[in-house]
From TrEMBL:
Protein family (similarity comment): In the C-terminal section; belongs to the NnrD/CARKD family. In the N-terminal section; belongs to the NnrE/AIBP family.
Sorted UniProt keywords: ATP-binding, Isomerase, Lyase, Metal-binding, Multifunctional enzyme, NAD, NADP, Nucleotide-binding, Potassium
Protein name: Bifunctional NAD(P)H-hydrate repair enzyme
Function (record text): Catalyzes the epimerization of the S- and R-forms of NAD(P)HX, a damaged form of NAD(P)H that is a result of enzymatic or heat-dependent hydration. This is a prerequisite for the S-specific NAD(P)H-hydrate dehydratase to allow the repair of both epimers of NAD(P)HX.
Cofactor requirements of the protein: K(+); Mg(2+)
The species this protein was found in: Sphingomonas sediminicola
Residues binding K(+): N48, D105, S141
Amino acid sequence: MRAAEQRAIAAGTSVEALMERAGAALAEAAYCHAGKMPALILCGPGNNGGDGYVAARHLADRGVEVRIAAISEPKSEAAKWARGQWRGEVEALNSSTGPSLLLIDALFGTGLREGLEDALQKQFYRLAADSQMRIACDVPSGVDSDSGVELSSVPGFEMTVTFGALKPAHRLMPSMGKCGRVVLADIGIEASPEWHELGQPVLPALDPGGHKYSRGLVHALAGKMPGAIALSAKAAAYSGAGYVRVSTSRSIDGLPSAIVQTDTAEINDGRIGCLIVGPGMGDIPRVLTLALTSHAPKVIDADAITHLGEPERLRGQDAIITPHQGEFERLFGKLEGSKADRALEAAKRSGAVIVYKGPDTLVASPDGRLGFAPPAPAWLASAGTGDVLAGMIAAMRGRGLEAFEAASAAVWLHGRAAEIAGAQMIADDLAAAIPQALALLND
Ligand SMILES: NC(=O)C1=CN([C@@H]2O[C@H](COP(=O)(O)OP(=O)(O)OC[C@H]3O[C@@H](n4cnc5c(N)ncnc54)[C@H](O)[C@@H]3O)[C@@H](O)[C@H]2O)[C@H](O)CC1
Ligand SMILES: [K+]
């Protein structure tokens, strides 16, 4: 966004013009959300505060009773301009500042360098607690917009209005949990799509002359706990794989009859569209070693990630790996930077596509592309949902999507399937909801 803003300015748009659009959009969203609710706007010294002064003017023009409390006079040129356009009073923000029903936080945005000072923090919390509705300008103040880390603790907001493009903080924890509904306003600048929120996938149409192998043969390797691989296999089948086969030394109960169980491991069958190894593998590393001898694309999940030991083992593997935080650290150690930086570094080191799971799942490609999952229901945090995701990714890869696209499509569909399955779901219900999630793509 900073680069995009500089490009817009170089092309002749003034910061004041961008600020006018940003402030107007903030006012518009606030008015749509809160109507004529009296508002208190907290303004900081930089351009985030500038947006606040502009929003105040637009809200007042709509008949809203607006007060501004500022921590100092504006320091940037554009914010001084915006302050000059405001005809009303500006109170000093301190312990005698009275609350209002609507609180708009325009203290700090992308320019925050460190946490808020204690005295300011105290007033910020008090005014947030004494309001009925809270709206943040760009990001809640205290949040580092690049990483989602809270440099000082942040109260919860009902809405965050941001400009031009989402910032990582809107899609990374813990800040994502504080933003409320995120409204994205166009202010006429273009950000690069290399980092993006995962959107509804476009799946290639099925070949009318196709057969079960061309729709994708997913081959899953069982280990100690066959229930987990059964979930992956089921999820792959429901995701539209043409053929799902499980290598297992003992018969697995309860698998749909359409899923073939074999006691041999034909992992070098050239028809395999994607292998799955890891769910329920347990302490049998030879299953992983075997999988790594196959030339097929593969999804490496769970215990198989732990048993990899070295990320270098993934080189040349055409692999997608799906670690949660613990598995990620076991494989890559403690990497520097934000979750986004760590995901990209891991992809670069291993040459694999990384699905870095959590409430803020990321999909990272070795070529630098990074996808942020849209928010998914908290009830996805239960046993077996990761096994389901692994199966979904394998099905997408098996039907011919490239690794990054396959992982992105599956992560998006997984979130929607969870919404459809509802709060009481177990992982089995999640797998069963996949066809309904896929049906969304036809609407
Ligand atoms: N990106 C765009 O295209 C546009 C963004 N707009 C808004 O501008 C802010 C970013 O503005 P900036 O002036 O760069 O930074 P801030 O307002 O967030 O704050 C900088 C200001 O605050 C001081 N400061 C930083 N940290 C602290 C601290 N912990 N305590 C006290 N003071 C602090 C710093 O020294 C500066 O004085 C972006 O978020 C948008 O809201 C524009 O409207 C134009 C378009
Ligand atoms: K803010």
